[in-house]
Amino acid sequence: MKLKLRVWRQKNSDATGRFEEYPLSDVDEHMSFLEMLDMLNEQLINEGKEPVAFDSDCREGICGMCGLVINSVPHGRGETTYQTTTCQLHMREFHDGDTITIEPWKAEPFPVLKDLVVDRTAFDRIIQAGGFISAPTGTAPDAHAAPIDKNNADHAFDNATCIGCGACVAACPNGSAMLFTAAKVSHLGMLPQGQPERWTRVIGMVGQHDEEGFGNCTNLGECTAVCPKGIPLESISRLNRDLFSALGKVK
Amino acid sequence: MLQATEAGRRIPLVATTTQPSTLTARQKALKSTVIAKFVMAGSGILMALFLLVHMYGNLKVFAGKTADGQWAFDVYAHHLRVMGEPILPPEGLLWITRVVLLVAVIAHFASAFKLWARAKKAVGGKRYASGGRVQRSYASYTMRWGGVVILLFIIAHILQFTTHTIDTWGGDAAASTPFERLVLSFQNPLVLIAYVIAIIAVGLHLTHGLWSAFATLGANTGAKARANLNKLAVLIALVIVVGFLAGPFAIFFGGITL
């Protein structure tokens, strides 16, 4: 298929970005979106132009490295409306002759490093503020030593699938990272291993979330609608409940 | 990658744009957007409860006259001033309600402004080529400008029916009763149109606002709760819109006359 790509080009964080258009032909419908961009970059290099910078790593939808805003939807949305990472979006979701607009995540706490690559270390600092448990060293306890309610285990696992890609922030009209923060708070807060730090965790992570300059949640649900892992919106309600309890418990 | 600092804290070796804060984690959490959202949700629910009571009271326009020949609406309006007597002084409960509502409006507006400013800064004026709506409701787009419309309406509404500064009934306020002022005002199409616009803004604001308040206060416990809370918000908004518009429309189309 033949495509027209409108790609955001930006030299570095200080430069002003702009769209550039590139025609691309002979795109195979079985290609992944990133393979299509690899093809574009080969074409650009052959023409003696600067290739488009974009992030990717595992290319199997589990690492959280890739992430592009495709036609104004983070990670893109094909005809099948299947929620996935950019690397698992395939060109069969598009048609011959389509114009595809490709942009980086846009939010102040995620400065663009180059073209489509953004700096997401703000997420690392939110994790450092509480997204951990303390485990004593020595012999590991038996895995079944601490019984866990099946319902809690399931919900904790659902939240643990967050890969920290940042699509929630990219989709949020308020630039909020609440879904990410809530996923981490839910994941650890629902398991026995996460209980000792449960209340300081939510306080620390919410404080850091705001300090990084992320916006507030207005319960629109755009985040959960683009999340490749389907982190549910109710996690944010759980974070709110935990924060409310924590403020009474932590002095 | 981490590096130890003199204070023994470990900070990441990356360029940060934020200054290290001197607040404790708890102080930061107390100043966070989540707390501002709690204030927003609490004051919003309080005002919605007031609206339900206010709407119920307004329906007294349909009650006609009492046995002693007074309009039921006027009896009700007078009762609002003496409610709670003799435990409370005259107009005691009225003033308590006014002060509580004023505090709620100020808290709601102040947190709205704080959150709006934060969100604006977090997005930094950068948005996508074509809007980027995925599934958010239409009502959610009306929250901010709708809130301003409602605030302006509340001010006009008080100037009209409480202080009688804006005269829409043509005549001396002291010589007329609340029911007379109400009926004469809503016979004017301009008054009705302005009122309808304001009430629709209230309805849209409540459709998203109530759901959002419930979720913020922690009631969204799952996909089913999310659907039910959204339905509840729509139901309350509908009841309020229909309840408030019924009287003025009945007056305008001649169903209620003096």
TrEMBL record, chain A:
<dbReference type="GO" id="GO:0046872">
    <property type="term" value="F:metal ion binding"/>
</dbReference>
<dbReference type="InterPro" id="IPR006058">
    <property type="entry name" value="2Fe2S_fd_BS"/>
</dbReference>
<dbReference type="InterPro" id="IPR025192">
    <property type="entry name" value="Succ_DH/fum_Rdtase_N"/>
</dbReference>
<dbReference type="InterPro" id="IPR036010">
    <property type="entry name" value="2Fe-2S_ferredoxin-like_sf"/>
</dbReference>
<dbReference type="Pfam" id="PF12838">
    <property type="entry name" value="Fer4_7"/>
</dbReference>
<dbReference type="GO" id="GO:0009060">
    <property type="term" value="P:aerobic respiration"/>
</dbReference>
<dbReference type="InterPro" id="IPR017896">
    <property type="entry name" value="4Fe4S_Fe-S-bd"/>
</dbReference>
<dbReference type="GO" id="GO:0022904">
    <property type="term" value="P:respiratory electron transport chain"/>
</dbReference>
<dbReference type="Pfam" id="PF13085">
    <property type="entry name" value="Fer2_3"/>
</dbReference>
<feature type="domain" description="4Fe-4S ferredoxin-type">
    <location>
        <begin position="153"/>
        <end position="183"/>
    </location>
</feature>
<keyword id="KW-0408">Iron</keyword>
<comment type="similarity">
    <text>Belongs to the succinate dehydrogenase/fumarate reductase iron-sulfur protein family.</text>
</comment>
<dbReference type="GO" id="GO:0009055">
    <property type="term" value="F:electron transfer activity"/>
</dbReference>
<keyword id="KW-0479">Metal-binding</keyword>
<dbReference type="InterPro" id="IPR009051">
    <property type="entry name" value="Helical_ferredxn"/>
</dbReference>
<keyword id="KW-0411">Iron-sulfur</keyword>
<dbReference type="InterPro" id="IPR017900">
    <property type="entry name" value="4Fe4S_Fe_S_CS"/>
</dbReference>
<dbReference type="GO" id="GO:0051537">
    <property type="term" value="F:2 iron, 2 sulfur cluster binding"/>
</dbReference>
<dbReference type="InterPro" id="IPR050573">
    <property type="entry name" value="SDH/FRD_Iron-Sulfur"/>
</dbReference>
<dbReference type="InterPro" id="IPR012675">
    <property type="entry name" value="Beta-grasp_dom_sf"/>
</dbReference>
<protein>
    <submittedName>
        <fullName>Succinate dehydrogenase subunit B</fullName>
    </submittedName>
</protein>
Automatic annotation (TrEMBL), chain B:
<feature type="transmembrane region" description="Helical">
    <location>
        <begin position="138"/>
        <end position="159"/>
    </location>
</feature>
<dbReference type="InterPro" id="IPR011138">
    <property type="entry name" value="Cytochrome_b-558"/>
</dbReference>
<keyword id="KW-0812">Transmembrane</keyword>
<feature type="transmembrane region" description="Helical">
    <location>
        <begin position="34"/>
        <end position="56"/>
    </location>
</feature>
<feature type="transmembrane region" description="Helical">
    <location>
        <begin position="190"/>
        <end position="211"/>
    </location>
</feature>
<feature type="transmembrane region" description="Helical">
    <location>
        <begin position="232"/>
        <end position="256"/>
    </location>
</feature>
<keyword id="KW-0472">Membrane</keyword>
<keyword id="KW-1133">Transmembrane helix</keyword>
<dbReference type="InterPro" id="IPR034804">
    <property type="entry name" value="SQR/QFR_C/D"/>
</dbReference>
<protein>
    <submittedName>
        <fullName>Succinate dehydrogenase subunit C</fullName>
    </submittedName>
</protein>
<dbReference type="GO" id="GO:0016020">
    <property type="term" value="C:membrane"/>
</dbReference>
<feature type="transmembrane region" description="Helical">
    <location>
        <begin position="93"/>
        <end position="117"/>
    </location>
</feature>
